[in-house]
Design goal:
This protein folds into two domains: 32 residues, no CATH class; 147 residues, no CATH class. The longest helix has 14 residues. A seven-stranded antiparallel β-sheet has the order 4-5-2-1-3-6-7. It contains seven helices and seven strands; from the N terminus they run αββαβαββαααββα. The chain has 190 residues and is of the alpha+beta class.
């Protein structure tokens, strides 16, 4: 049997916000959105072999370090990189999970996808729905395996789609070009 902590266990909290977060998480299972920052990314990178094109989808708070790590293990040079930014980590994590779930028929291995016309069409359709939110009919038509990550996508967002300049600069968004969601999908070697 678990025993709830006494009120005095919360005396060490440093702020009202921290106290509310701890109480919400412990008693009701809610989590409060993290403090907003501009350093949360869902990335889409593309590389090409002699015969195929591959795309990796993931999320990170340090895109420079993540792309460097991926390039180390990837036998082909990363030729194109896109980043979808948000102030909130929870949004990019939810978006990444949703992309993986809805693009799973095109998955090659783990977070890697083989680019085909069908993959690009599915990606373009999905990205175009992100900022406007999904309609009830669209949600109703989704597979049953879509879970809590879909909840965050039911409202409008202000995700920014950026085409990154490679090699990355000190400020990874320096020189980045804001693109439409449809241009992002087409930019992955379509």
């Amino acid at each position: 049997m678990s025993v709830r902590p006494a009120v005095c266990d919360y005396a060490e909290t440093r702020s009202v916000r921290e106290l509310c977060e701890r109480l919400s998480a412990e008693f009701w299972g809610y989590t409060v959105l993290s403090q907003p920052t501009a350093e949360n990314f869902v990335y889409l990178i593309g590389c090409r072999s002699t015969a195929e094109v591959y795309v990796k989808i993931g999320c990170t708070s340090s895109i420079r370090r993540r792309l460097s790590n991926i390039q180390t293990g990837c036998p082909y040079p990363i030729e194109v990189a896109f980043a979808i930014t948000s102030e909130y980590r929870e949004e990019v994590v939810g978006l990444e999970h949703l992309l993986h779930k809805l693009l799973s028929p095109h998955r090659l291995r783990a977070e890697w996808y083989l680019v085909s016309h069908e993959f690009l069409a599915a990606l373009e359709e999905l990205l175009s729905k992100i900022n406007r939110g999904f309609s009830f009919d669209e949600v109703y038509g989704l597979p049953d395996f879509c879970g809590p990550e879909l909840d965050g996508m039911l409202h409008r967002h202000s995700f920014v789609f950026n085409s990154l300049v490679l090699p990355l600069r000190r400020n990874v968004l320096e020189g980045a070009i804001s693109v439409e969601s449809t241009a992002l999908a087409r930019g992955l070697f379509s």
